[in-house]
Write a structure and sequence with these properties.
Shape: globular
Low-confidence stretches: 1-8, 10-15, 17-32
Mean pLDDT: 82
Strand content: 25-35%
CATH topology: Trefoil (Acidic Fibroblast Growth Factor, subunit A)
Distance between the termini: 13 Å
Structural class: alpha+beta
Strand order of the largest sheet: 7-6-5-4-1-12
Order of helices and strands: HHEEEEEEEEEEEE
Oligomer: single chain
Length: 163
């Protein structure tokens, strides 16, 4: 029951962010869409025991998983935006080039840099750049960035819940 309430709150948050700005063009109005899949909760890294964290004030990072609501994220396959639940901000791919830090920004439905394609296996691919969300594992880095997709464990991300 608690999980369902969290999912409904997450969906309400997502709709409040995008609801007033979604306007379908004539071509989009007839585009068939599959049912939206909602992913929410912690986002775990496939490379190590860590969670996606907003990394305030820097770009996102992989950090120790905690019960902090700043580590709660929502993703809808319909809107393709990854929203930080507590901060009501969207994940942005920055400049979109290899090594660009992924950071939180004010949500903008018109920004392709904030649109992500979750390929239902484990990879989050940015719509604008075509690059994967990546954990820079060089040295002691905890930085989350975008990088050419290479199927490495540092590019695998698992959502806690799916509805």
């Amino acid at each position: 029951m608690k999980r369902r309430r969290l999912a409904l709150r997450a969906l309400a948050l997502l709709l409040s962010v995008v609801g007033a700005t979604v306007v379908a063009s004539p071509a989009q109005a007839f585009e068939p869409r599959p049912p939206a899949i909602l992913y929410h909760g912690h986002v775990f890294s496939g490379a190590a025991a860590g969670c996606l964290d907003p990394g305030i004030p820097a770009n996102t990072q992989v950090w120790f998983c905690s019960s902090a609501n700043t580590q709660v994220w929502t993703y809808s396959s319909r809107f393709r935006m990854i929203i930080n639940y507590a901060l009501n901000k969207c994940l942005d791919d920055g400049a979109g080039i290899n090594g660009s830090g992924a950071f939180l920004n004010t949500c903008d439905m018109n920004s392709q840099h904030q649109r992500w394609f979750y390929d239902n296996t484990t990879f989050l691919i940015n719509v604008a750049s075509g690059r994967c969300l990546d954990w820079d594992m060089t040295g002691f880095s905890i930085k989350v960035e975008v990088w050419d997709c290479n199927s490495g464990a540092n590019q695998q991300w698992f959502f806690e819940f799916e509805d």
